[in-house]
Amino acid sequence: MAQTTLFAKATYPDRTIRLVVPFPPGNNSEIASRVVASRLQVRFGHPVIVENRPGGAGGTVGAAGVARAEPDGYTLLVSPPGPLVSAGALYTNLGYDPATSFAPIALLFNSPQLLAVSKSLQVTSLDDVVAHARRNPGKVSFASPGYGTQPHLLGELLKLRAKIDLTHLPYRGPAAAITDLLSGHVQLYFESSPTILPLAQEGKLNVIAIAGERRIEALPDVPTAAESGFPDLVGGFWCGVLAPAGTPQPIIQRLNLAIGEVMQSAEMQRSLVQFSALARADTPEDFALFIAAERAKWSAVIKEANLRIEGTPK
Question: Which domains does the chain have, with CATH numbers?
Answer without folding.
Answer: 2-110+237-305 (3.40.190.150), 112-211 (3.40.190.10)
